[in-house]
């Protein structure tokens, strides 16, 4: 197994909010609680779960874009979770992010060349004379012709903009990229192009990805390991085979069962396990195991005590009282 | 084949641009049988939503129907005036939109929103409509239905709001329910609940459903027949099993191949369709898919292919492609 590039220990992010018509009530959103896992060099680790489960918060907290409430993020022997912006700056070269919406992440007044060149100039990675050549190489890397450097974002399609966002992330030769729903806004035929591009770039530059997504079919296709989150906590984490072929947590099982398959005959006869009810509010998460209000096999213990996050063997982690 | 409920012929829709009108829907033919569920599949901008919105005169400004007909119950929907249409909208045809947050009235209690079509179309008294509203909420599986009647939309979760939208769509026992990407904004476990709900209701109420989606995997388990749209035209129309077993149009084949499948053996790369769909107003001459098509020939770049039965047989499987027949025979 590859060594860990990033080590995440008991990472927490709580957001204070004010409720009521006049903001008179203080409350806390428990967006992420006690997440511990390693991100291995060169792997694609995916985080899946439903909206509000804390998967994007996890990505933001690792990059210190949201300052963690507690816990550690170890990168090159140092806990970057406590770094201020000035100390983070050189590290941001290594740790990049691509967002979901390619329409709002590019500055509409900057040409594609300016957008891609900005991080290079900021980190002083090359001279002004070398810059155009470097931008052209980056655009070629993401499959765009060099003449696109003179264009503006509104002249590009969604898929092309997402390629630009990737080129921008690649500009300062990062080791690690968080892909935060980076393909979710794209049409199916374009989505496949971007997935293939991500895989090509990983091979070429030895990149490590934290891939945040809700589309399980895509996750299954590209991941080495998968983490499943529910309401701010990790429910299960393991290799793709462990999580997809042998899911342990009842929530993972329900999630897999809800994914539709492009197979009409199979779909008609398939026995689905349909979860009842909705995800509870992260403002007031259930006591004990946060899944117990919807869990088909919840026991008395699940209501009172938080299940321990443990390795069941061979790196297959789970947090569930019912798993032996 | 069962009796036809809705028959759309040669529907053309234009959008007004600075450079003059641009065609966004170009001569669409489709039909829905009684009790049938039709899936309309396509990517953003292919005209799948506009086609259905145009039937009830719900098109946004600057977009208008330029030609065609839509026969429903012996009358052409496209020729009806507003008063006549009002009797059909929400009455004989129910509509469920993608985003329940913006389609529900935020300052109206959901009980009143449910009662509105009942009072309007069924001339029910307020008390009777309220009682029926409670029953409808129960029908769509909202727990504590009677208490929820006085709730406002913001007090409900996304899945609950979508159930309310479906209940409103069903309020007057419509012959046809049009659902425009009703689960796209929802999480996968909630999506499974809604799909299950619509399947059950369809069986119990015997209505026809048109389900608009971009998700081929989702529609596989739901539709009887599927129409695949590309750049404002129907490129393929087939019973669901045939479409998945024997896709004939290169675009349909490309779409199916680009879906990562859970059960499939791991392959490093997905097959993808190069390029992007044409913009309205810049549609190529000939087949709209020709510029992206791996099989395109000279004829494809000059002549628009007609939607015709596959292999010239009397089959419900129809495809609009010059080369499909030959390719299917060779395969």
UniProtKB/TrEMBL annotation, chain A:
Single Gene Ontology MF annotation: ATP hydrolysis activity
Gene Ontology CC annotation, any one: plasma membrane
Gene3D superfamilies: P-loop containing nucleotide triphosphate hydrolases (3.40.50.300)
Family per similarity comment: Belongs to the ABC transporter superfamily.
UniProt-listed InterPro entries: AAA+_ATPase, ABC_transp_ATP-bind, ABC_transporter-like_ATP-bd, ABC_transporter-like_CS, Oligopep_ABC_C, P-loop_NTPase
Domain ABC transporter: 6-256
PANTHER family: D,D-DIPEPTIDE TRANSPORT ATP-BINDING PROTEIN DDPF-RELATED, TRANSPORT ATP-BINDING PROTEIN
Keywords: ATP-binding, Nucleotide-binding, Transport
Tree of life domain: Bacteria
UniProt name for this protein: ATP-binding cassette domain-containing protein
Compartments, record wording: Cell inner membrane
A Pfam family per the record: oligo_HPY
Membrane topology category: Peripheral membrane protein
A single GO BP: transmembrane transport
UniProtKB/TrEMBL annotation, chain B:
Entry-linked SMART domains: AAA
Membrane-topology descriptor: Peripheral membrane protein
Superkingdom of the organism of origin: Bacteria
GO molecular function: ATP binding; ATP hydrolysis activity
Location in the cell: Cell inner membrane
PROSITE patterns cross-referenced by the UniProt entry: ABC_TRANSPORTER_1, ABC_TRANSPORTER_2
GO terms for cellular component: plasma membrane
Keywords: ATP-binding, Cell membrane, Membrane, Nucleotide-binding, Transport
UniProt cross-references to CDD domains, sorted A to Z: ABC_NikE_OppD_transporters
Swiss-Prot/TrEMBL GO biological process terms: peptide transport; transmembrane transport
Matching InterPro entries: AAA+_ATPase (IPR003593), ABC_Ni/Peptide_Import (IPR050388), ABC_transporter-like_ATP-bd (IPR003439), ABC_transporter-like_CS (IPR017871), Oligopep_ABC_C (IPR013563), P-loop_NTPase (IPR027417)
Domain ABC transporter: 6-256
Cross-referenced Pfam families: ABC_tran (PF00005), oligo_HPY (PF08352)
NCBIfam families cross-referenced by the UniProt entry: oligo_HPY (TIGR01727)
Similarity comment: family membership: Belongs to the ABC transporter superfamily.
PANTHER family, sorted: DIPEPTIDE TRANSPORT ATP-BINDING PROTEIN DPPD, OLIGOPEPTIDE TRANSPORT ATP-BINDING PROTEIN APPD
Name used for this protein in its record: ABC transporter ATP-binding protein
Organism: Devosia nanyangense
Lineage: Bacteria, Pseudomonadati, Pseudomonadota, Alphaproteobacteria, Hyphomicrobiales
